[in-house]
Amino acid sequence: MGLRGGDCPKRRDEEGAHKIARKRTGARRTDPFAAAKESPRENAMPIRPEYRKYYDVRWRKFRLAALEAAGNVCQRCGQAHRLLNVAHLSHDPADRRWLAVLCPSCHAKNDTPQRLAMTRRNWAKRRGQLWLSEEIRWGPYPIRTWPLRLRQMKLF
User: Fold this and answer.
1) Is 18 left (phi over 0), alpha (psi -120 to 50) or beta?
2) Residue 116: other Cβ atoms inside 10 A
3) What's the number of domains the chain is made of?
4) Which residues neighbour 47 within 8 Å (Cβ) at sequence distance 6 or greater?
5) Are the C-beta atoms of 43 and 85 separated by less than 8 Å?
6) How does pLDDT run across 56-80, given as a tens digit for each residue?
7) Long-range CB contacts (within 8 A, 24+) of 80-88
8) Is 5 part of a structural domain of the chain?
9) Phi/psi at 80 (nearest 5 deg)?
10) Can you give the three-state secondary structure of 52-116, one letter per residue?
11) Which tens digit of pLDDT belongs to each residue from 78-116?
């Protein structure tokens, strides 16, 4: 007669060891989706300290209005999603002209070229690479953050 899954002595010993460890440490099995069930403020996306000033109460009201105006669907793929984002297409939080309501998948696709450019520049900077011109070095950053002498060159 074979053993059933719950009758395996090794499994019983492992489960007993886990119960004893939980009793000692006070640890409980946690819900893997607990973070998603928390309130939106507690589960908010981390924002860089220098950009926090752009995401105040006015932004949250603006975001809700933008989601409602888009009909609560992604403006790129047209699919309804419960986690829609208002994305900065220019990657500049100060710029409110180039915004779109995107689902997480489309938002990630939109941000990938920028993220890769920043990663390449960070790796090159660590290796001591020099740039052919200052415009190339500052390329992936928002223009408002460029040095004044570069902004006055009328490149764009």
Assistant:
1) alpha
2) 11
3) 1
4) 55
5) no
6) 899 899 999 999 999 999 999 999 9
7) 86/62, 87/111
8) no
9) -75, 145
10) HHHCCHHHHHHHHHHHHHCCCECCCCCCECCCCEEEECCCCCCCCCCEEEECHHHHHHHHHHHHH
11) 999 889 999 998 888 888 888 999 999 999 999 898 888
Q: Give, as one character, the DSSP assignment of residue 30.
A: P
Structural domain range at position 95: 46-151
C-alpha angle 151-112-40 in degrees, rounded to nearest 5: 100
12 in any annotated domain? no
Rounded to whole angstroms, the Cα distance separating 150 from 92 reads 17
Residue 27 lies in a domain: no
- Let me know if residue 89 belongs to a domain: yes
136-144 contact pairs (CB < 8 A, 24+): 140/91, 140/114, 142/90, 142/91, 142/92, 142/94, 142/95, 143/92, 144/92, 144/94, 144/95
Instruction: Output the six-digit token pair for 18.
Output: 């886990």
